[in-house]
Specification:
2 copies of one chain form a homodimer.
Chain A lengths: L2 H11 L4 E4 L6 H8 L5 E4 L3 H15 L4 E5 H18 L3 E7 L15 H5 L5 E4 L6 H14 L3 E7 H5 L21 H12 L4 E5 L6 H14 L2 E4 L6 E3 L7 E2 L4 H8 L4 E5 L23 E6 L5 H11 L27 H11 L4 E6 L7 H4 L6 E5 L8 H11 L5 E6 H4 L5 H7 L4 E7 L4 H9 L7 H7 L8 H7 L3 E5 L2 H13 L4 E6 L1
Parallel strand pairs in A: 1-2, 1-3, 3-4, 4-6, 5-6, 7-8, 7-11, 8-10, 11-12, 13-14, 13-15, 15-16, 16-18, 17-18
Antiparallel strand pairs in A: 9-14
Helix pairs in contact in A: 1-2, 1-6, 3-4, 3-14, 8-11, 9-11, 12-20
Amino acid sequence: MNGADRLCETLLANDIDVCFANPGTSEMHFVAALDRRPQMRCVLGLFEGVATGAADGYARMADKPAATLLHLGPGLANGLANLHNARRARTPMLNVVGDHATYFLKHDAPLTSDIESLARPMSQWVGYIGSAAEVEARTSEAYRAAMRMPGVATLILPADAAWGDVPSDRPPVRTTLPDLAAASTQAVRNAAETLRSQRRVALLLTGQALRAHALEIAGRIADATGARLLMQTSNGRVQRGAGRVVIGSVPYSVDAALEALHDVDAMIVVGAKVPVAFFAYPGKPGLLVREDCEIVDLARPGEDLVQALAHLADELGIKANTPVSVSPGFTDDATLPRGPLTDEAVAFTVARMLPEHAIVCDESITAGASFFRHSQHAAPHDYLRITGGAIGIGIPLAAGAAVACPDRKVVALQADGSGMYTVQGFWTQARENLDVVTIVFANRSYAILQGEMRNVGVEHFGSNAKRMLSIDEPTLDWVSMARGMGVDGGRATTVEEFRTLLEAALKQRGPFVIEAVV
Amino acid sequence: MNGADRLCETLLANDIDVCFANPGTSEMHFVAALDRRPQMRCVLGLFEGVATGAADGYARMADKPAATLLHLGPGLANGLANLHNARRARTPMLNVVGDHATYFLKHDAPLTSDIESLARPMSQWVGYIGSAAEVEARTSEAYRAAMRMPGVATLILPADAAWGDVPSDRPPVRTTLPDLAAASTQAVRNAAETLRSQRRVALLLTGQALRAHALEIAGRIADATGARLLMQTSNGRVQRGAGRVVIGSVPYSVDAALEALHDVDAMIVVGAKVPVAFFAYPGKPGLLVREDCEIVDLARPGEDLVQALAHLADELGIKANTPVSVSPGFTDDATLPRGPLTDEAVAFTVARMLPEHAIVCDESITAGASFFRHSQHAAPHDYLRITGGAIGIGIPLAAGAAVACPDRKVVALQADGSGMYTVQGFWTQARENLDVVTIVFANRSYAILQGEMRNVGVEHFGSNAKRMLSIDEPTLDWVSMARGMGVDGGRATTVEEFRTLLEAALKQRGPFVIEAVV
């Protein structure tokens, strides 16, 4: 058995059985080892950003990491933007990056680069496998880091560690995971005391605290104490819709966020980061809560967030079977809009037509901003969003979620500017026949940037600004691009056309693209 | 005047008047400053790898850097693979990477990352602009580094350095460039002595030594001494074809390279790297020359390679006006092949039909391997190749070369697997109406990797290997993808169809894609 075989065996022993891959020559022994193990599902992306974005979507839904297989520094570099998003989502992921043989690095061959320097900014953990004998231990460490940091673990596999002989042939041992650390008793008491005070308190949640069962506990706390439930602006996954506890999110825009958080005297954070602006603006604060807002840490990332909420409820004397306020679902008979298609009409229509237990992948940026509001009472669904602001995650994220949950419909809300970043992901959706309907908001501009340009005081765009902030001239034909990659699609310019296309797409299985001209 | 204005002025003072851009919010003040200067040509890429690859192609042809405008760590990350190629080509380039305002970094906002750690592996020079007052000096340093290292200079521009006031309003001073360092007299003498010895000597060239006038000097040396002329496997640009000095290149495959270099007793390197294998293979050497081959450094990268050759010729007593052996052009009346299209037929046909002074951008990998041989006596042309092995450069490289040389036809030879990496580049070709004909070798596989898989001893591919090394199922429709981005195209399955399409594409102006099904 060689090191590459050992790596595969160690992954499989830990139930990692999906590998999003884009291999090169230095990974050929690993490819050969994967080929000897048909129980490992290898999913090819035609660009590494597709592989890493899909691994993110997969793990958000499967609650376990996928492996990725990336080719040296440049292959890793191509995947970094989506690793950045995964790092911010704290998604467990295990990247295997091939490197030149250890003894070969001195030659500084054309593809040589400093892989660790590239990996570190976008990984919670980085490890180098010095030899075949080290493969099992290092892979086990990487798995533990991915599951318990939790986050992105990047393992560098030199070619000679892959092809070298492993001394022992005993099967790899399943990695023991330590229990999640518990929030401290003192933290629970502090949070309870804060909630019992007369101040206006918000609970800020993220991570596992946004799953339905955790939100029920948080909802009972809110019902009992009058605290507000909030989640970060960007989260990996939240379970919401009819029958689920309703939770708002911190707005993206600085002014709206300041307004929304102005009356918060104390904020209890549950695995979350205290809200800060996405960007600095001259004369505007970075911190979005009031300077005198008290921050109470209930639990930190890597701690057991769900248990922390349960302990907090206990401390407050709230029984586990207390009924909790949830979304009643849509209670009106709103008629769908008609006529020319708009962002708002798309968001409204998708929310109303969303199938039960759909997975919504949202990289609609400005265009789909109203979807979150419209879908508060939609059919119960999982909502996955771009987390790190690195655009180009939507198409791959949807692919990965669909690999993890083959029996659920994935509905991807996709801005056109961002969609172009990893448009190659459609091909993977076609090859794997993934059940994804992608709705492209074709506004033919970087609309968010046009707004930001006005924010810096430029009202009238000259030629250079127009050419950098618009993506018309020529118009992108999404149906043609998707068909070129084996995904069928249609174009809608009216609400009626959009609705007809969406109905058909939701009924069929397999990928479909709707270009919504808005 | 703010820092961003100062940056633009400093770039323009140094004749940098093209910016390949993909901006984000943190770069809005820079965008506004560019917008105030219509003399700066801003070219938008729909992905940062397009911007960096195009900047590489531009500078290879213009012999001066373009600027790029990249958005924070993830934007830089997306451009890194093509920066890797540019670094290996030693292409002068000046990247401007926006960062959060200096005082804002402490908030660790979603898009925060360690930009320096990402930049360093793929840049010859990295600098951080601490404030608006530093903009001119740092930009000047970056320009000098780009021109004189030469190579990739990456400048990190925090938002507050962009929007901050610059104390002085005097116009920026043009940066003084030191003369290129001269090769040492001793190095020239050593090289001459080597050439006068009875040993079999090769001159290994790269960089400026591959321009027509430098090759004439090298050719005279070869004619006079019997030395062999060789260039590196991968070079940024070489001027070749009819009327030019003929030069071979070190083969890519280890076995072929060992064979080709076996009889070389001494190698005089002119800005080049001693040949090493692209990858390590068990039991094969990394160094491609014999262990006892003497290496004689005539000139190092960053030294004046052309002058070094001229001094060497002087030292050997060769007169500057001595006639030199050059390619006579095609001397046969070879008829074009007929019938089903093959790699070989495409390469042969393109070589025979190549227009005078075309720029050939070659990322054909395995499929176009024979083009180099077939085009030895083609019409005079510039030949630009992928240099660092990071695939996804072809489409952007062609775009950048076309921006630099609007009066020359660009012929891009593109492998399909690599082409998908930065397929978004077609849109930039369409928007700028660039005169590029792209020939996609649609072999529907990572053919090079299938060969490498056999090299590691796997003859029969299982399902996983097939799924990772083939890109059929579904078949990519290049004509449909290109049209979706505003570039017209056609598909050829026979030599006759191919020839008809190529003839038409060469006659028209503007981008065109030919899918050559091989």
